[in-house]
Amino acid sequence: MAGNDWINSYLEAILDAGPVIDASKSSLLLRERGRFSPTRYFVEEVITGYDETDLYKTWVRAAAMRSPQERNTRLENMCWRIWNLARKKKQIEGEEALRMSKRRLERERGRRDATADMSEDLSEGEKGEIVSDLSTHGDSTRGRLPRISSVDAMEAWSNQLKDKKLYIVLISIHGLIRGENMELGRDSDTGGQVKYVVELARALGSMPGVYRVDLLTRQISAPDVDWSYGEPTDMLTLRNAENFMHEMGESSGAYIVRIPFGPKDKYIPKELLWPHIQEFVDGALVHIMQMSKVLGEQIGGGQPVWPVAIHGHYADAGDSAALLSGALNVPMLFTGHSLGRDKLEQLLKQGRQTREEINMIYKIMRRIEAEELALDASEIVITSTRQEIEQQWQLYDGFDAILERKLRARIKRGVSCYGRFMPRMVIIPPGMEFNHVVHDGDMDGEVEGSEDNSSSPDPPIWSEIMRFFTNPRKPMILALARPDPKKNITTLVKAFGECRPLRELANLTLIMGNREAIDEMSSTNAALLTSVLKLIDKYDLYGQVAYPKHHKQSDVPDIYRLAAKTKGVFINPAFIEPFGLTLIEAAAYGLPIVATKNGGPVDIHRVLDNGLLVDPHDQQAIADALYKLVSDKQLWARCRQNGLKNIHLFSWPEHCKTYLSRLATCRPRHPQWKRSEDGIEESESDSPGDSLRDIQDISLNLKLSLDGEKAEDSGTLDSILESEESAVNEKSRVERIVSKLSKSVIRATQKDASSENSSKLPILRRRKHIFVIAADSVSNADLVGIIKSIFEAAHKDRTSGSFGFILSTSLTISEIHSILISGGIPATDFDAFICNSGSDLYYPSPNSDEMLSSSELPFAIDEDYHSQIEYRWGGEGLRKTLVRWAASVVEKKGEGEEQIVIEDEQRSSTFCHAFKVKNPALVPPVKELRKMMRIQALRCHVLYSHDGTKLHVIPVLASRSQALRYLYVRWGAELSNMVVFVGESGDTDYEGLLRGLHKTIILKGAFNLAPSQLHAARSYPLQDVVEFDSPTVVQCEGCSTNGIQLALSQLGLLKE
């Protein structure tokens, strides 16, 4: 066969190159970072270029020609191994095709179910398959604001915002971030995103109406990075802010704020940051709280100035922003930059690695889950192009363009969406700073006349490029891209080399990064650069192609100027270009463009109209487009003029104006309490007046729970709760209870001050340390024993009031009450109870002996907490979907069926839909349930109990770890002063309790029950998100008092 001749040639080349490839060294990571290997290169050519049948026949031929010679033996072995690699690739591709087919069916089913619930007739706006009004610069002008095309327009717009003083928080936690002399390209984490977020912060800080912008990132004090990355803050120099100096204040402006988290003396890649996300969230929360109070003193009249939005950049920051948004109850924005599902799809299509191997290197499943959570929590998702929405975000469970359109139309009509929500996708292209742009000629492109009049010397990079050319005055075709196969540089060189008229008319300049020696480059980059050099030699392009080895970032503007000076063209021939920032940069310097028709360049061309789009696979089309632009002077001048005329649409002021306008459409949210903070101070001593003032505040804020939740059946608790009374009687009883509480505090003021703490609600802010008991993997009897051991271990500080206690569990408040009674533990020994997996928060009543009847539980529910977590709660619409799903989970028994999942109405509450699971082995894992909910646009947090017999569905941003953050925001309970006690395993939210600013004690021993197999089917391994080898995590053998005291001593909380 014809193909076999090529295969044989490749195999001969492999044999000549050296020993056969070692399978243990064939990972993608080594291919990207290792030295160039001809063996790997030719193996890839064989696997990707030829059919499995040809490879099999080659192996058969080699086996038939077996001889004692070593070369033939190696050839046979190599053929067999390469054939197996090709089979593996084909198998992976087949599995992925089946997975994608299943995904399409699931999405269609979910869309049908969601539409069935929304049973009203669809309006015209809910029909159709295309998302409308997505692009800021698209064809639709509906709702578009006028452009900022002059200083007068900017001043008019700024006058509308002069009374606003906004506080905006941006988050980008990986890479090396500083305001000046950015080390772009230093590593894969310090690239375009770093420049984007810094410039965005700087530009927003210069906008009218914006008082302060904080860019939160990681503080790094490692010996291998510059000292500046260890500075806590870095003030950014604002540009073009002279007209708004009157708005400047003591803390105004734009700042890089570095939060310490992760290894203190080590700079680590983003894939290894996941175990430290909780620590960053806690540290960022502390900073935002402090800054809100400072701004409140300066511009808020004494009231905290909360962020108007928290904007996460990339998956890790999106995960962090979602948790911060939930803790502070403020709107969230998200920009993905690069998406995990898209990267996973691309790597799987290559067929070189399995999903498991990819996840091992890139932690891709954790990244994807973070992006899904960002979709759950975001009000606006900012993208650069339409292609990003239609081809990349469409891969996610949490976004469906068709369903998004229907939900938006229903919202406009005021029709119920039945608890369904979809983030708004908005296209806002990245901005650029054009003030430094210098042109060598006028708008008509007459650049030659200015050459002799220029007194300034030519930039050094010009001579570095021009030395390659026989005739450096010819128009320059400029390509600026790293040597990556996706950038399609080889096709460009072929197009140039095979088009004689183009070669005679123009020169070609290839700026392909920086290099010392090809052998020291990564194998992929080295192979591509070698191919380029071979093509130059093949077409004899010496004197016509420049490929300099070095250039600085500051040289790039001069390179653009040189191309424009020669009346050249800029080209981006990438197979797919997510955005195309270089196209905007080139246009700013007056260069017409030729660009790929796949991705972001389509949107750029629609706005600028300054060049031609081509099929990157069509070599002839590329050559024709380049020749047309270079040879037609009128077309060249028109494209140049269009680009310069419209380039302001990609300026930072235009970007920020659109950004702030979109932000203004978000419903304002921030922490709001039903009580006043006046008179509440953090002090060590409590006066009797404080107690009275606190109980009066609590009477406004907290409604005493009459039965904790919905009526409980007698089989669940030791005591039988009375049935609910009417709403009028309930209100009357609450008023009488509050009255009694107030009277009791008045009586307490006449007693000795030492007993005052017992009547203080809440007293969390006065605790030096707070012990959070969250052991899920134990029986109720063992839980009582653990509580008593912890109480005994901290007896001295407990009696003095230094230590406080919180019980955090999936149990209801009624079940907790029953357990405490059975163990003889007073409820007032605890400061708070986090119940129903974090969906309810209670405080003990200080006067349980004066409750009006035995059915009234001695707890007060925090309604402010419910106002924090109700964001995107599906309520009854979500419950109906869950009930319908539960009815479909059945076990066949003979001729009949038994329902496995049953709604637990007694254990359900307003913000917790509870279900009983009869057989955990027959229900889907959490990741499948979350996927099902997301496909139907239902945003919620799904959890299984430790043993898998309980299923809780709570608000998406509610959890037990989030409840601890609420206690800090609400009452000032310092997170760093908390100690969380957990078992060896736990409920689905176990990982969130292990890390953060708090300390963790893991109780080990035989009392830990084995977890359900449901918890084994995780989206990602637990070790990907938790670092157990940490000084803040201590493992305690057993739950004895002495063991717990020893663990507390290791954490520095008790003296030996």
Instruction: Strand order, main sheet: write it out.
Output: 15-20-19-18-17-16-27-28-29
What coarse outline follows from CA principal-axis ratios? globular
Structure annotation, total helices: 34
Q: Which percent range describes the beta-strand content?
A: 5-15%
- What's the rounded overall pLDDT mean? 80
**Which residues sit in consecutive blocks of at least 5 with pLDDT less than 50?**
17-38, 124-151, 442-453, 676-731, 737-761, 849-854
Task: Report on this structure.
Residues 884-987 form the Sucrose phosphatase-like domain. 41% of the residues lie in helices and 13% in strands. The protein has a 9-stranded mixed beta sheet. An 8-stranded mixed beta sheet has the order 3-4-2-1-5-6-7-8, with helices on both faces. Strands 11-10-9-12-13-14 form a 6-stranded parallel beta sheet, sandwiched between helices. The radius of gyration is 33 Å and the shape is globular. The protein is of the alpha/beta class and 1056 residues long.
Write the layout of secondary structure elements.
Elements: H1 2-17, H2 28-33, H3 38-49, H4 52-64, H5 70-117, H6 151-161, E1 166-171, H7 192-205, E2 210-218, E3 233-236, E4 253-259, H8 277-299, E5 309-313, H9 314-328, E6 332-335, H10 340-350, H11 355-362, H12 364-377, E7 380-383, H13 386-392, H14 401-413, E8 424-427, H15 460-466, E9 476-480, H16 489-498, H17 500-505, E10 507-511, H18 523-538, E11 545-546, H19 556-565, E12 569-572, H20 581-588, E13 593-596, H21 601-608, E14 611-614, H22 619-631, H23 633-646, H24 652-663, H25 688-701, E15 702-704, H26 727-748, E16 769-773, H27 780-793, H28 795-800, E17 803-808, H29 813-823, E18 832-835, E19 840-844, E20 859-862, H30 863-869, H31 875-888, E21 890-893, E22 896-899, E23 901-903, E24 913-917, H32 926-935, E25 940-944, E26 950-955, H33 960-971, E27 978-982, E28 999-1004, E29 1033-1037, H34 1041-1050
Parallel strand pairs: 1-2, 1-5, 2-4, 5-6, 6-7, 7-8, 9-10, 9-12, 10-11, 12-13, 13-14, 16-17, 16-27, 17-18, 27-28, 28-29
Antiparallel strand pairs: 3-4, 15-20, 18-19, 19-20, 21-22, 23-24, 24-26, 25-26
